[in-house]
Amino acid sequence: MIDTYAGLDDAEIAVAAARAGAEVVRAGYGRRHAPIEKGAGDFATDVDVAAEEAILGVIRAARPEDAVHGEEGGQRGAADAELRWLVDPLCGTLNYAVGSMLVAVNVALTDGPVAVADPFSGEVFFTREGTAWVRGEGGQGGDTPLAPTAATRLVDVNLDPPFPGAPAFRAVDLLAHPRFVEGFRPRVADGNGLAGSVHFAAGIALCRAAGCVVTGVDGAPAGESGRGLVAAADAETHGALLSMIRRRG
C-alpha cells in the first residue's frame, strides 16, 4: 500500500483517503445496521467505523508521521505531530441508516487540502492551493473548477440539535421570516460543528476555496467556539441572510 501512495501530494492523499472511505460506505448501503450508541441521541454504525479505518489506512501508508482525529476513533498519532487530519467517515449517519443517500465522507488536513466524497455519485470535491475542484468517478472527465452561484436561491437550514446559536437565534425561526419565504427556498440538513470539527472543517474549506462567503451566524469568522454557521454563494446573499438572522435575534 505504501508504494501506491508514494509521491502523492497532500491533495491527492486527501482524495484517495476520501475515496477509500466512500467505497466502504457504498458497499454497506441498503443493509440493516445496529446502532453504536454515543449518547444524547447520537449514534454510529459498523460502516462508520469501517470507513474510518479505510481512510486511516491510506493516511498511515502515505503519511505515517501525521496525527489523525477521527469522529469514531478519536485522536491517533503523536499529540505534537506537525500535521493533523480531521476525518468524518460518514457524515449523515442517520440518513444512511434509514436508506437515504444524502451522505458524504469528509477528510481534511488542518491548514491544508480537504476532500469530500459522494459515495454514490463517485464524485470527490477537493481543494488544492486555495482553489476548489470536483473530480468524477475514476477521474473521468478530469478535474472541473468549482464556483458558487446564487441563482438557485436554495438555502440549507440545519434543524439537527444541538443549536449553537440558541436562544438568540434558531434556524427554524428563519423559515418563518417573510423575506426568507419570498426570496429563498429551504432545504433541511443535519449535522453541526464548526471549523476544526471533523464534521465541518472540510466543507468550510471547500466553500471558501470555491469563493463562497462563510462566517458565524453573528457575522464573525467561523471558529471552533462559534455560535453557528452561515455559508453563502455570494456577499449579497450572505448579507441578506445575516440581516434576517439579526432581526430575529
UniProtKB/TrEMBL annotation:
Keywords: Magnesium, Metal-binding. InterPro entries: Inositol_monophosphatase-like. It holds the Pfam family Inositol_P. Mg(2+) 1 binds at E71, D88. GO terms for biological process: inositol metabolic process; signal transduction. One of its GO terms (molecular function) is metal ion binding. Mg(2+) 2 binds at L90. It comes from the Bacteria. Its cofactor is Mg(2+). This is Inositol monophosphatase family protein. It comes from Streptomyces sp. gb1(2016).
